[in-house]
Amino acid sequence: MSRYLYLALDLGSVLVPLLFSFYPKKNFASTWRAWLPAILFPALIFIVWDEWFTGMRVWGFNVTYLTGVTLGHLPIEEILFFLCIPYACLFTYVAVNYFRTTEPIADQGRRVTWVLVVGLLAVGIKNYDRWYTAVTFISLAVFLLVLILRVKPAYLGRFYFSYLFILIPFFLVNGILTGSWIENPVVWYNDEENLGIRMGTIPFEDTFYGMLLILMNVVIYEYRMRHGVTQKQGAPTHQNAALTGLIE
């Protein structure tokens, strides 16, 4: 049964969010015209990135925990990862902001972003010869720069606040994938291509790799919601009006 471990992690991660997506007072599932492209477009980017790095052996996969179905260098479980995990995280982002009673770190969102940009660029450029570190840190820094200089979203503080909650299941799932509580890792990393810093078994870079992925999901989702994308296009719903109010 070990060959179904990665698949089980994918499906287990999305199961609870999927069930609660039909909660009547906040029907996340009904906003599929917003969340579907918000998941698919970043998934395409990350799958290409993943294929590239797997081919370069920046990281790879332990066949013991895989069903054996592959596309290119990638197991099908890895491709599902970029669909299941973003859905669960995007649902968490919406849920956290639905239940909050105060505006989290609203005044600090831009300041936190600048700190991240400077730190990420410094580490990424200094470690230009480490593929995972350089590409991840510089890509996230550039994306954040575009956001604060051009897009200027009001929801960055809410994203950072929600990401703290997202990190809880992230450390659990990613911990298993990188070898916690199992004999060998599902996903192995070439430490010559990263900083060699581990949080338990999780490479330090994974936190920012995940941040870039989920932030891209959130940006597209917020854009689609703000522009009136609902189950019936052109007919704003209560859910859309509520989230549009959050963005404003």
Give a quick set of tags describing it.
248 residues, mainly alpha, two-stranded antiparallel sheet, 8 helices, 6 strands, globular
3D architecture notes:
The protein has one domain. Helices cover 63% and strands 6% of the residues. The protein has eight helices and six strands. It has a two-stranded antiparallel sheet with strand order 1-4. It has a two-stranded antiparallel ribbon with strand order 2-3. The protein has a two-stranded antiparallel sheet with strand order 5-6. α3 crosses α7. The longest helix is centred in the first third of the chain and has 24 residues. It is globular. The C terminus is likely disordered.
Could you provide a short overview of the structure?
With 248 residues, the chain is mainly α.
What gyration radius follows from the Cα positions, in whole Å? 18 Å
Largest sheet: 2 strands, antiparallel
> Based on helices, strands and strand pairing, what is the structural class?
mainly alpha
Q: Describe the strand arrangement of the main beta sheet, using strand numbers.
A: 1-4
Helix tally equals 8
Separation of termini? 49 Å
What secondary-structure arrangement, pairings included, does this model have?
Elements: H1 5-20, H2 32-55, E1 59-61, E2 70-71, E3 74-75, H3 76-99, H4 109-126, H5 131-151, H6 156-177, E4 187-189, E5 198-199, E6 202-203, H7 205-226, H8 238-247
Antiparallel strand pairs: 1-4, 2-3, 5-6
